[in-house]
Write a structure and sequence with these properties.
mainly alpha; 72% helix; single chain
Length: 294
């Protein structure tokens, strides 16, 4: 009898026992982008916002300035999104250097965007130029993250492209400052800060592995003061904003270019005369385009 009751209990308990629940692992789909894809996403979004902003006729208003600063900040955020895993490994205190030019490049284009005629063709051309330049700039900054620790073949090309975009940004920003016709004591601080930062990051690209990198802040400060003094003189010069900006861009090219070859230990007599001739040509253009007596 006891055996029958025990078998009955076992069957009863086994029948009413809770069933095992099989936990199926849920598949989580994650999308992983490589660096180039992240660069393309950032360039497309920034270019689209830049082109759409034209239809709101912002010009040099408070809203236009906010959009310009916002897009400039986003350009750095997209760059950080793409190279953030390399920064702690390859950089220490100079990590911020790669974010200077993308910010000023976007700021220069967005502000200059408000100066050109409101035509769809000109807007499309400028937007395409901005997109191509920004993508090239992202690639250059990515190369600099690697070139800070070892010498690579692409470093020379990245330096050239970065220097050209630096000159373009400097020209646009100087043109904007001179076009506003503000008093010299108002635009002088902006000229100095813009010149110092653009010059600092440009010379830094040629001193990544140089022992003279400790002299870079003082070197850049003194050169920026020289450019500011010339800019103050040009502000009183009877010329158009475009001509004045072109002359300052030529001066910037000469000073920074000579600094490049000096840090690269290629400052020979022939190279020196090339920059002297460029400065002479730009100076004669300034003289010939001066509106004397007006």
């Amino acid at each position: 009898m006891k055996r029958i009751l025990s078998k009955f209990r076992l069957r009863f308990l086994h029948k009413d026992a809770p069933r095992r629940v099989v936990n199926r692992q849920k598949k989580i789909i994650t999308i992983v982008f490589d660096k180039r894809q992240k660069f393309v996403i950032g360039v497309l979004l920034l270019s689209l916002v830049l082109f759409i902003s034209e239809f709101y006729h912002l010009r040099f208003s408070r809203s236009g300035l906010i959009i310009s600063l916002g897009l400039s900040t986003l350009s750095d955020l997209f760059l950080y999104w793409a190279v953030r895993h390399d920064l702690p490994k390859r950089f220490e205190t100079n990590a911020y250097m790669i974010f200077i030019l993308p910010f000023f490049y976007t700021l220069a284009f967005t502000l200059f965007y408000f100066l050109i005629p409101a035509r769809i063709l000109s807007r499309v051309i400028l937007t395409v130029l901005y997109a191509v330049g920004l993508y090239s700039l992202y690639l250059c900054q990515n190369i600099f993250t690697v070139g800070a620790t070892r010498t690579i073949q692409l470093l020379s090309g990245a330096r050239i492209v970065s220097f050209v975009l630096t000159l373009l940004s400097f020209f646009f920003l100087m043109n904007i400052l001179f076009t506003l016709h503000f008093p010299i004591y108002v635009i002088a601080p902006f000229i100095f800060v813009t010149t110092f930062l653009l010059m600092f990051q440009s010379i830094w690209t040629y001193s990544l592995q140089s022992d003279a990198i400790s002299l870079l802040p003082l070197w850049t400060f003194m050169l920026s003061v020289c450019v500011l003094e010339v800019a103050i003189m040009i502000w009183f010069w009877p010329s158009t904003p475009t001509t004045s900006s072109l002359f300052l861009a030529g001066l910037f090219y000469t000073i920074v270019g000579l600094s490049h070859v000096w840090f690269d230990r290629r400052l020979f007599r022939g190279v020196l005369w090339e920059y002297v001739w460029v400065s002479a040509v730009v100076f004669f253009v300034l003289i010939l385009s001066t509106t004397w007596g007006k």
